[in-house]
Design brief:
single chain, alpha/beta, Rossmann fold, three-stranded antiparallel β-sheet, 18 helices, disordered C terminus
């Protein structure tokens, strides 16, 4: 659609009724929601009925007002589709168009292809630290996105050193491949408040330099982000306008120098290993930035477009060291207890009552400085979630699971980190659990024995004193009686 000048009230006064109707039709479109699409500054935007009427139509002739609000019947429904024009069938498409169009990659000259390779190498070396499976995944993730599809996973680019170039490929794609109107780049505001108009119709959403949150604040933000990563629709709301539901086009990328993520959903966040090999290498970045033009962007788009993404699963990504680090740092303390006390010590969970098992977990938490261990119910639910269930025997509930089974569970959920150290089982490890009832009984018996011994000694000394006083010894040294009494 060609760009045209903004609407002019004075211009319509000079037009015939038919020409005025056509002029109105080219700027105002009534929507099935009761709102109106109004063309301004080169694109259609949604306005409330009252705003359109009071601002524009209250200043027009009654014939034009009657035509638009009473006689005009071609209402349109809002759609967001990167592959469709602005107006098609009975719809108005609010999705911006992608900047580039496909041209067979082979038709680009070698100079341009060489610059495409520079950018691809940067993605491989810096974003993926030369991890080939990770690189192949990221490239398919990008390819799937530029084809107008939504990846139901989020790329998390965390580099603790400034100047690594982690954002460079995203900036290149935003400016020269996809185009600014299709992208959002900013902070966490659309996640922290209900006003998220910035995300409407955006194909790539970059939360750049995401701040480090407290645990409670992150849980609130994370619940919103996780839902939006996978949801097919978005509820869009802006100030003064009713919320509306629209197709979710967003592909999410988080860029941060902080450890922003406070929990780690294994399916949604793909955490990349960012290399710092080119930090402060001015010559390298000068060469990299020669790629920043629309011609290279066109070739890069065509290169990605030709990648087969038909069977691509955005939630099936390879392991990275950063991802494994994240698993380890955020492992639930119940699972960490199992890892530390059984897997790393290469021990089975022998037949143990539910009460004793839970009590041992509580003691583990105390020793690790964990002030709020899970409740007994939550402890058993967490075990059930990984297919560890108790069984009943003679009226008592017990757990029993082999080291092989524990290792299989650990491998499935990536509990063990490369820095973890396995320990050989010692003779002290063989009798791990303490029978607390027996221990209490034993200690009570020992205390009672001591009391009985003290009682007997006391009675014996009293007898000695009594004999000493009645036998009238011929001679007693000074202090003997006192000594006997005090004893």
């Amino acid at each position: 659609m060609e760009t045209k000048p903004n609407f002019c009230l004075n211009h319509i006064k000079d037009l015939s009724l038919n020409d005025a109707r056509r002029y109105i039709d080219s700027y105002f479109i009534p929507l099935t929601t009761g709102d109106h699409a109004f063309y301004t500054d080169g694109k259609y935007e949604i306005y409330k009925h009252a705003v359109i009427k009071s601002t524009y139509f209250d200043r027009m002739s009654s014939e034009i007002v009657k035509y638009y609000f009473k006689e005009k019947t071609d209402l349109r429904t809002i759609r967001y589709d990167i592959h469709q024009p602005v107006l098609f069938d009975t719809y108005i498409n609010f999705c911006p168009k992608i900047k580039q169009s496909y041209k067979p990659y082979v038709e680009f000259d070698d100079v341009i292809k060489a610059k495409v390779n520079i950018m691809l190498n940067h993605i491989s070396e810096v974003l993926c630290s030369d991890n080939k499976p990770a690189y192949e995944f990221v490239i398919k993730w990008f390819a799937n996105m530029i084809k107008g599809n939504r990846n139901n996973s989020c790329l998390y680019l965390r580099g603790q050193v400034h100047g690594s170039g982690k954002s460079t490929p995203l900036e290149f794609m935003r400016e020269h491949v996809m185009g600014l109107p299709l992208c959002y780049q900013g902070g966490s505001a659309p996640l922290k408040t209900k006003f998220n108009k910035e995300l409407s119709g955006k194909l790539m959403v970059m939360f750049e330099e995401l701040e480090s949150f407290g645990a409670s604040e992150w849980m609130s933000i994370s619940s919103v982000l996780k839902r939006q990563i996978t949801s097919p629709t978005l509820m869009i709301e802006s100030k003064g306008v009713d919320a509306r539901e629209e197709k979710n086009l967003n592909n999410y990328v988080i860029l941060s120098n902080n450890d922003a993520i406070q929990d780690d959903d294994g399916r949604r966040y793909f955490i990349l290993d960012i290399s710092t090999k080119y930090v402060k290498n001015e010559e390298y970045f000068e060469r990299l930035y020669t790629c920043f033009n629309d011609e290279v962007g066109h070739a890069f788009y065509s290169y990605l477009y030709e990648i087969d993404t038909e069977k691509f699963n955005p939630q099936s990504y390879p392991k990275t060291q950063s991802k494994l680090d994240s698993y380890s740092k955020r492992l639930d303390n119940i699972y960490k207890y199992l890892k530390d006390e059984y897997i790393l010590k290469k021990r089975n969970i022998d037949r143990i009552s539910v009460s004793d098992f839970y009590q041992d977990y509580v003691l583990y938490c105390s020793g690790k400085g964990i002030t709020k261990p899970k409740t007994k119910i939550d402890f058993n639910i967490a075990l059930k979630n990984i297919n560890i269930e108790y069984y009943k025997s003679n009226g008592t509930n017990y757990y029993k699971i082999s080291l092989e089974q524990l290792t299989e569970i650990s491998n499935k959920f990536n509990w063990v980190h490369d820095l973890d150290e396995f320990k050989q089982e010692s003779s002290l490890d063989k009798d791990v659990f303490v029978d607390y009832e027996q221990l209490y009984k034993k200690q009570t018996d020992e205390i009672n024995d001591l009391k009985e011994q003290i009682k007997k000694l006391t009675e014996s000394q009293q007898t000695i004193i009594s004999i000493s006083k009645t036998s009238k010894p011929k001679k007693m040294k000074k202090g003997d009686e006192k000594f006997i009494v005090e004893f």
